[in-house]
Design a protein that fits this description.
Blueprint lengths: L11 H7 L5 H5 L4 H6 L3 H7 L2 H12 L8 H4 L1 H10 L4 H9 L1 H8 L10 H17 L1 H10 L3 H7 L4 H12 L4 H13 L2 H7 L7 H24 L8 H6 L2 H12 L5 H15 L6 H10 L9 H7 L3 H9 L7 E3 L2 E3 L4 H16 L3 H9 L2 H11 L4 H20 L21 H4 L14 H14 L8 H16 L3 H9 L2 H32 L7 H4 L16 H4 L15 H13 L20 H20 L3 H10 L46
């Protein structure tokens, strides 16, 4: 019987279009209107491209729907209208991009007073962005005629959709010459300078945040596109302005002028971090510093560093007097004075500046004792791992820089410039400045780790900074073992008692901590190990087992011919001996003298005997699998010409059940008693 399908059914939309007086709203009520549009339904596209339909679609995405509508359905039609306009259908794109009245209606959306409806703003941005990518010449020409376009977009920058629109102008314009024209136009409109002005402390926080994110995205997009283009005729004008000393100085001025708020500090610092970041962002790129040293450090425009250096004291002041924050409740108790995002971003900035290995910047950081303050915070906020990571990166940068710096260069050694009360090794070994007047034998790394051991012995909780502190201690030890000159010189200048305590700490406490960490993390390392190329082979699978065999139904059985059944009868291995012993113990031989029994004869079923026989059969099969000799025995049967096929014991479900009905005292031998020397006799019960 064949199922009957009516493959010639027309869609309900076609039926609606055949009806006179059909409206756009009626079509938009249909669930498959978007699918039909993207499937290039000719009738539907011709209807949608009519002037009155296009006008209505644009109106839906630019005008607020009536407030008295139910909330669930209020933005239903605007959403469908946006999807239809951005369905990437040539007929709709041509109509929308080529009709200036429709573009004017779209542009009028920007002329509203802020704030914009965020949902309608996203519809507008998506529609204009699609036109920028598909009808580039017409749309760019239209926007350039509007002298207040950039002003209107920045006026609504509190809506994230406007940020997306600016990024589309920068990244979605092709070909390259036209893109360069757009960049020059945006530069003439002073886009970067105007975004930087929005970072002022007196601005709305939402505008500051979106302006900061826009600047960061422009930096990354411009650098990525510069790397991808093989032929660069001229530099990116927007990136050149962003990296200029004047613009960076203006950004820093806006951050610190007037009342310093956490939002202005965080947003401004994010732009600075983006200017300083390497091509490979993220933790993986930062931690490469450990293994590759200062050669891994990247080139940063010197104008950026020159603009930042005079304001390092302002960042230092933020570490001392951060913006006020209220107490917060954490899992370890009430934190009266939280670290805050401002100080955390300052720590990130210091870590990035140290990775540049710029001599002037590093000297200023040492002169301000910035590392001492960060180390004080490291021990004070023992549960803030975000801060711990940045301090660890700072220490790694200092040690790696010292390993590659000239001994005559006092850059980070700073023995002469440090105050007389200091130990001279605070920046390198991580000694907080507040401990400089105490006994030099009391090192924070040693004291903290030893105190944690005692705290754990009393049943307390392991402190949160112990992991990073252990890695810092290991980094110092590794540099000592490498013979790092600056660390070696400092260690020899320490008092005898301090050196003895350090050596004792390294040989006992630190070694025990590393041993315990290795044991604890062994299984974790196993779990996160990378899957190797031969992973499948190691587990006994191959690609052929997962391939389709529809064309050859015998494909699954062809592999049997590949199995090697050859055995060596003279093999006296331990497995063979154990197998023979098991056979002698568990299996009784067949008697050749008995007449061979017809397996098809009907017999009375004895369930007790059958269960006993099945138990023996199961025991035998377990032995075969245990000693991996099942294939060998089968090979012996098949390899002896003239031998009869063995009787295979069956369970209660087997036909006939003759094997299970044999008397336990009967003995039968399979094949002739004159077995060649190179063959084996397989006893079977």
């Amino acid at each position: 019987m064949f199922w009957k399908f009516d493959l010639n059914n027309t869609s309900h939309i076609d039926q609606l279009l055949d009806r006179e007086g059909v409206t756009l709203r009626e079509l938009m009520e249909e669930e498959d209107v978007l699918q039909e549009c993207k499937a290039q339904n000719r009738k539907l596209l011709l209807f949608l491209s009519k002037d009155h339909c296009m006008q209505e679609l644009v109106t839906l995405i630019t005008e607020e729907p009536p407030a008295d509508l139910e909330e669930k359905t209020r933005f239903k039609f605007p959403n469908i209208a946006c999807e239809l306009l951005t369905s990437d259908v040539a007929l709709i794109n041509d109509k929308l991009g080529g009709d200036e009245s429709l573009l004017e209606k779209l542009y009028h959306f920007l002329e509203q007073e802020p704030p914009l409806n965020p949902l309608l703003a996203s519809f507008f941005s998506k529609t204009i962005g699609n036109l920028i990518a598909r009808k580039t010449d017409q749309v760019i020409s239209f926007l350039r005629k509007k002298h207040n376009f950039i002003s209107l977009v920045l006026n609504h920058i509190d809506a994230s959709a406007m940020m997306d629109l600016l990024l589309r102008l920068i990244s979605c314009v092709e070909p390259a010459p036209l893109r360069m024209e757009v960049l020059n136009w945006l530069n003439e409109e002073r886009l970067i300078q105007r975004l930087t002005e929005l970072m002022h402390t007196g601005r709305d926080e939402e505008r500051q945040s979106n302006a900061s994110q826009t600047l960061c995205d422009i930096i990354r997009l411009s650098r990525d596109q510069a790397n991808q283009l093989s032929e660069v005729t001229e530099p990116d004008p927007l990136l050149a302005v962003l990296e200029s000393q004047e613009n960076v100085a203006e950004l820093l001025k806006n951050m610190f002028e007037g009342e310093r708020t956490e939002a202005s500090v965080v947003n401004g610092t994010q732009v600075l971090l983006t200017l300083l970041e390497s091509r490979r962002s993220g933790l993986e790129g930062l931690m490469d510093l450990y293994s590759q040293g200062c050669e891994r450090s990247y080139t940063v425009n010197s104008s950026i560093l020159c603009a930042i250096e005079p304001h390092l004291k302002d960042f230092q002041q933020l570490l001392l007097n951060p913006p006020t924050r209220s107490a917060i409740l954490t899992t370890v108790g009430v934190l009266e004075q939280p670290l805050g995002s401002a100080r955390l971003h300052v720590a990130r900035l210091v870590a990035s500046l140290l990775q540049t290995c710029d001599l002037s910047i590093c000297q200023e950081i040492c002169r301000l004792n910035t590392m001492d303050l960060l180390l004080d915070l490291f021990f004070k906020y023992s549960w803030n791992n975000f801060l711990h990571l940045q301090v660890e990166l700072c220490v790694a940068s200092i040690l790696n820089h010292s390993a590659h710096a000239d001994l005559q260069n006092p850059g980070l050694q700073n023995h002469e410039e440090r105050p007389a009360t200091g130990t001279g090794s605070q920046a390198e070994e991580g000694t907080p400045g507040q401990n400089s007047t105490s006994d030099p034998a009391n090192t924070p790394i040693q004291d903290a780790l030893v105190a944690n051991v005692g705290h754990l012995a009393e049943g307390g909780r392991r402190r949160g900074n112990m992991g990073h502190l252990t890695r810092i201690a290991n980094t110092v030890v590794q540099n000592l073992e490498k013979g790092l000159i600056i660390i070696t010189c400092i260690s020899t200048e320490l008092p005898e008692d301090c050196r003895g305590r350090w050596e004792s700490f390294v040989g006992e406490t630190l070694r025990e901590t590393n041993r315990r960490n290795t044991v604890d993390l062994a299984f974790s390392d196993y779990q996160i190990q990378q899957m190797t190329a031969n992973f499948v082979d190691q587990f006994g699978f191959n690609d052929e087992e997962f391939s389709e065999h529809d064309e050859n139904i015998n494909a699954a059985f062809d592999r049997i011919a590949e199995i090697n059944f050859n055995i060596d009868a003279d093999d006296h291995s331990a497995n063979a001996a154990a197998f023979e012993a098991c056979c002698k113990e568990r299996i009784q031989q067949f008697d050749d003298c008995e007449e061979e029994e017809d397996i098809w004869d009907e017999k009375e079923i004895n369930y007790a005997t059958q269960i006993k026989s099945r138990s023996r059969y199961s025991t035998w099969m377990i032995c075969l699998r245990k000693y991996n000799l099942l294939g060998s025995v089968t090979g012996a049967w098949e390899g002896s010409p003239g031998q009869k096929a063995p009787l295979v014991a069956s369970d209660s479900s087997s036909s006939g059940g003759s094997d299970s009905e044999e008397d336990p005292g009967e003995h039968k031998t399979v094949g002739s008693s004159k077995t060649p020397a190179n063959q084996t006799t397989a006893p079977l019960r």
